[in-house]
Design brief:
This protein is mainly beta. About 10% of the residues lie in helices and about 35% in strands. It has two domains: about 160 residues, Acid Proteases (Cathepsin D, subunit A, domain 1, Beta Barrel), CATH 2.40.70.10; about 170 residues, Beta Barrel (Cathepsin D, subunit A, domain 1), CATH 2.40.70.10. Belongs to the peptidase A1 family.
Length: about 450
Amino acid sequence: MILSTILLAGVVSGSTHPISLVKRADSTDNNATLAAHTTHYIPVVNLTIGTPGVNVQASLDFLSGDTLVEDVKAPAFAGYTFQANRSQTLVKGQNVQYGLPLLNRTLNANVAHDKLALDGWSSDNSSFLLLETTDSYGDLAPFSASLGLGYRSQHIDPVWKSWTKPQLGLHLKRTNATGWTSTVLIAGGREIAPTPETNNIGSISIGSSAPGLGGKAHNVSVNTTDNGEWLIECSKVQMSGQERALSLPKSEISVMPSMEGIWLPPVVIDNLMAGIEGANKWNVSQRVSAGTRWTLPCNSSAQLTFGLGGKDFVLDAADWMVEVPASDGDVVAADSGKCAALLFETPEGANARLGLAFLRTVYSVWDFATPSIAFAALEQDGDRLYNGSWKDAAPAQLSSVPITTTGAEFAEATRKDTGGAQPRMWSSAIVATALLSVVLL
C-alpha cells in the first residue's frame, strides 16, 4: 500500500450536505433483500428526484457507483417514495440486469434519466437505475433510493464523475444517544433499542473536505475488488495492555459505512478480549448473525488500535462498546448492566470490516478516481453516538451461562494449548482454517 500525507484543507471547496441515520429493515430471511444484509442504522442523505421534485431519503452506497431509484407503486407510500408516473421529466431507456454487490442476486432495472438534486448540487439529466416493485416495500426499503458512491459501476456513470473533483468527505459526529426505549412485542419478549440522535449526525462534502475539518491526514491506497469493496492495508489489530499485536489473514480490511460495528475473524476477537477482567463470551441466536458476543464492564478503559497504511488509529473503549440497559433482564439475562463489544464475527470467508464504530472516530476523504481513502483522527466533540441498538450487538437469546467466565480464563486456556506460552496470536495455521475469502451476511 502507498502511504502519504495530504492536507485536507488544500482540497478545493465544494458543497456540504447533512446526513442522518435511518434504521434499515430487519429481516432474517435467507432470501431477503439488500436491506437485510446490512446492519440496522445506515447513513442517508435527502435527495430530490424528478419534476415536480419528490424528496426521499437515499442511502449512501459505497459498494456501487450505480445510483438506484425505486418506483414504489403502493399509494399509501406516495408521501415519501418516488413514483415514476408523477415526474414530468423522467425518460426511460433500456432494461438491464443489476447484480447486487456481495450478494448472489440480480434485479430488473431500467436505465432512466431525470433530475437529481441535493441542496447546493443538482443535475437536470442524471442517469440512474429505476427499479420497479409491486409490493409495499421493495429492494431498497425503507428508502426510495441509494446514491452510488462506489469506484466501480455496472451500467451508468457514477454521480461523482460530474463533480469538479471526484472526492467525497465523510464526517460523523461523536455525540451521545439520547436514551433507551423498551417496547413489548406482540410475540412476546422485548426489543431494546436506543433513541439515537439520528438527524444531522454528520455531513458529506461533495468534491472537497468539509470547511473547518482540515488538517493532516494519511492517504491509504485501495485494493480494488470486483464487488466494489474498499480494501486497505491493515498491518495490526491490538488491544491496550497486550504485548503483541494480531494480524489479519490477508493483512487487509474493508472500510464499509453501511455497517455499524467492527467485523473480525472469531479467533481475533477472542484474543483481543482475552485478559480484559470481567469479560464474558456468550452464544447468541440469529438476529444479525449466529455466533458469539462479548460483554465487559462499562468502566473498561481498553483501547483498540488498528494499523492502517502504516499509521495507528486508536479507538477508546466508548467507541467500540455499548451499554446494556440493566432494567431489561428478559433479554440480557445474567449480564445486564454491563457493556457489549461492537465486535462482530465475520462470516466464513468474509473480509474483516471497519464500519461506523471506526468511521465516527476519523474524518475520511474518499477519492473515487485513484481510488484511495484519507483518514484524519478526530478530537472528541462530545460523547459518542452509538448508531444501533443492543439487539444488534447481542440478539435476544444469550446462552444460559457464558462460554468463558472471564477473558482471563480464555487467555489461560490458550496458554495451556501452547504449552505455557503467551495467548495465541494469528498464525498461518489459524489463517488457513478460520477465514477464506469474501461473503457478506
